[in-house]
Amino acid sequence: MSEVKLSAQPRNEFGKGAARRLRRDHLVPAVLYGHGTDPVHVALPGHQVALLIRRANVVLELDVNGTQQLTLVKDVQKDPVHQIIEHIDLLVVKKGEKIQVDIPIVIIGESAPGTIANLDAVSISLEVEATHIPQNIELDIEGLEDGTHITAADLTLPKGAVLVADPETLVVAISVPSSAGDADDIEAADAAVAAGQAEESDEAKGSDAE
C-alpha cells in the first residue's frame, strides 16, 4: 500500500466551536504526534479523508506549509449517531521504520459441503515496514474439512512481515453444525464472507476513484 499525499492546514483554534467551523468548511481536525516531537494540530480535507479511512492502516504523506510529514492513521473518532468524523490521530512514521499494526483477515473460498467456517480472529498483529503495510491477509478455506483449525502460525504472511500475535491464536475453525437448526449458522457465515468480499470490492473501487 503506497502512501497518499494530502495538503494539511495548520490550526490554532480548538474546542467544539472551532471543530464545528472546520466541519462546516468540509475539513477534519487532526493531530500529529510521535518520534519525540511536539503535537502538531492540523485540518485535513474532509471528503478525501472520509474515502481513505474506509480501509485500515492508511499512510498519509502530509504537506504542512511546505514540510512533508509521513503519518499513519492511528485513531478515528466519529459521532456515534451521525457517523461524522470528529477527529483523527496521526502517528508520525519514517520510511523503512518497522511498526506494529493489526491487519484484517479476509476469508476466500468455501469449506467442505455441510460445514461452517467460524472466524475467531478478524485481524492479526504484525510488524511491518511503515510504507509497506498490507491491506489485508487472505485466508483460503476452499474444501477444508470438519475439525480443521487454522492458527496465526498457519497464515501466509506478506514478504518482510513478522508475526507479533501469539502463533497459537485461533483464526478459523471448520465445523459441522450440531443440528438442523444450526443451518442458519451456515447461512450467516456465508453472508459474512460475502459481505467481506463485497466490502473489499467497494474499497478497491473507491481506491481506483481516487
Give a verbal description of the structure:
- The chain is an alpha+beta fold and 210 residues long.
- Helices cover 20% and strands 41% of the residues.
- The chain is built from 3 helices and 13 strands.
- It has helices at residues 16-24, 46-52, 183-209; strands spanning 4-10, 27-34, 37-45, 59-64, 67-78, 85-92, 98-108, 116-119, 123-129, 137-140, 149-151, 162-163, 170-175.
- Strands 1-3-2-6-5-4 form a 6-stranded mixed barrel. A 4-stranded mixed beta sheet has the order 10-7-9-12.
- The protein starts with a strand and ends with a helix.
- 20% of the residues are buried.
- The model has no long low-confidence stretch (mean pLDDT 86).
User: Largest sheet at a glance?
Assistant: 6 strands, mixed, barrel
The proportion of residues forming helix, as a percent range, comes to 10-25%
**Can you tell me the overall shape?**
elongated
Low-confidence stretches: none
How much of the residues is beta strand, in percent? 35-45%
Question: What is the gist of this entry?
Answer:
With 210 residues, the protein is α+β, with helices and mostly antiparallel strands.
